[in-house]
Structures are given as C-alpha cells and as structure tokens.
Design a protein that fits this description.
The protein is mainly alpha-helical. It folds into 2 domains: 2-60, no CATH class; 72-127, Arc Repressor Mutant, subunit A (Orthogonal Bundle), CATH 1.10.10.10. Helix content is 56%, strand content 11%. It is built from 6 helices and 2 strands, in the order H-E-E-H-H-H-H-H. Strands 1-2 form a two-stranded antiparallel ribbon. Helix 3 (72-82) packs across helix 5 and helix 4 (87-94) packs across helix 5 (98-112). The radius of gyration is 19 Å and the shape is elongated. The protein starts with a helix and ends in a 5-residue tail after the last helix.
C-alpha cells in the first residue's frame, strides 16, 4: 500500500470477475484522482473488458483431455512464443527460418485447439506443457 501511495495511487476500486465453475477473480485498480462520475463510466467499461478477458481465460484454461503431446522443438518454440518473441526472433534464436517457425506454430495451434499466440500460450501453461 505504501508503494502504491508513493507512486501516486491514492484512490481505487475493486472489481469482482465471475467465471464458470467457481472460476472467480478480483481485480484492484488504482488511480491518482478521486473517482468522479466520468471515471465511473470508464471503470464500468474497464470492468466489462476485464470480465470478457476473464471469461476467455477461463475457457482457455478449462480442462482439456487428452493432453496433446508436443515434440521437443514444438515445446521450445512455444516457450519462446509465451515469452513474447516474434517468429523472426525465434528463428534467429533457434537458427531456423521464420517459415519453419510458422509451420511449427500451425501444428501447435492445431494440437492445442487455439487460433492465436496468447491463447495457445495460456493453454500450454495450464496443461503444464511449457514453463516460463
């Protein structure tokens, strides 16, 4: 609390987030200024966005069976993806082409039934397929 106050965050609000199967969460948002009616509308919009994001995370981390098997290279590439690296960065790190990275990612997306980098990383972390 002292660190938040020293950073200028003296006002705030707590936002409950609900998910399926008791997958609930709570987010605290701090601000420097008092919460006015105008800010209340912004906070409400923020809560809607956070709720939508929380629902998606609950969906992505829902139990999936059976757990897909990843090759060593797929797990390696996925670990770099989860760390925010681009295909070009991963290609440079692994000394392979960016096209090869893209091919591996397509296989990974199919195995983990996800359509984007964030979703596949969340699912892989939940399933214990990678660690970051």
């Amino acid at each position: 609390m002292r660190q938040a106050h020293s950073a200028g965050l003296i006002h705030g609000v707590g936002l409950p987030l609900w998910g399926p199967l008791d997958c609930d969460a709570f987010v605290a948002v701090g601000c420097a200024d008092a919460i006015t009616d105008e800010k209340r509308e912004q906070i409400y919009a923020l809560q809607l966005l956070l709720q939508a994001g929380h629902q998606k995370i609950c969906e992505l981390t829902a139990d999936v069976s059976p757990v897909p098997k990843l090759s060593k290279r797929e797990a390696e590439i996925l670990t770099w993806v989860a760390q925010g690296k681009s295909n070009t960065d991963i290609a440079t790190i692994l000394d392979i082409s960016a096209d090869t990275v893209a091919t591996y990612l397509q296989r990974i997306f199919a195995k983990l039934k996800s359509r984007n980098r964030i979703g596949v990383a969340i699912r892989a972390l939940k399933l214990g397929l990678i660690r970051i």
